[in-house]
Amino acid sequence: MTSKNKWIFIINPVAGNGFAKNYTEKIKEIIQKQNLNAEIVFTDRKGHATEIAKDFVDNGFNHIIAVGGDGTFNEVAQILVGKKNVVFGAVPAGTGNDFIAVLGFPGRFTNHEWEILLETNTIKMDVGKCNDKYFLNGMGLGFDAQVAAENYKSDKKQDVKKGNKFKYQWHILKTLVSYKELDMKVTIDGKTTQSKSFLNTISNGRRIAGGLFLTPDAFVNDGMLDVCLIQELKFFSRVKELLHVMKKIHTEDDVVNYFQTKKLLFEFEKEVPAHLDGELYFNSRFEISAVPSSLNIIYNPNGQHYFNV
Fold first, then answer.
1. In whole angstroms, what is the distance from residue 222 CA to residue 219 CA?
2. Domains (ranges, CATH) in the chain?
3. pLDDT tens digits, 186-232
């Protein structure tokens, strides 16, 4: 490790129901053994990881390592997009851990994965942009976003708070029955159509929602977004299509429109929920685009990553 490198480990202590904290001693051991010029900081609220990353980048830290779930990675990346001399690393400690598969790492680190991380094999990765927010892995509008919205509850100290895994499963079942597709306008390559869709997934990566391969053909360095639109469906057709998604056989179904694009626009008559890397976001207009080769990130070159190299 060269002395000019300055590392910050940003740990979300509540990620994975507290699992992320378990990495603290390992990180301290690594810092000591590798003689890293490094600090460890814990987040204490929603959005805090973004603030921490900005402060440390502004103070010359060039290796920013996020320890948490997809939401933590998303927060840190908001500051790092377009920073050519800053390296981003991700250590999975959440529950879904969809994004880490992009980089060729498993959902939990052993000594082997820590060694690969410290080798700092870096590659340029695309990100997605929705209005003024970035997403690393993917975003959704429709059924899955409504499930996410139902799974959050009001909290006076924080705007929203996630429910537990049991509540999430309950909301999937409830929303599967009750969800009503909304009128929307979709603009792709200058052509606008009006329709209703059960599910609208716009992805950089392949995996979303805790392991569903809605966009199985995606690469994260091709300058394109992979889009999966599933048309308005009745209850039993919804169940059938979700089973097809789980089996990775949905892309050829007549009710599915799967394609690639560099940008697209969704417009609704009122604010609707969306999720960006699993984080809830409300708007009525979603201007979405690919931002090619904009994130310098550590990956596992020998893993099953989603880079076309």
1. 6
2. 7-120 (3.40.50.10330), 133-291 (2.60.200.40)
3. 999 999 999 999 999 999 999 988 788 999 999 999 999 999 999 99
Please tell me the pTM assigned to this model: 0.90
Here the tokens at position 203 are: 């992805």
Locate 214 and state its tokens: 């809605």
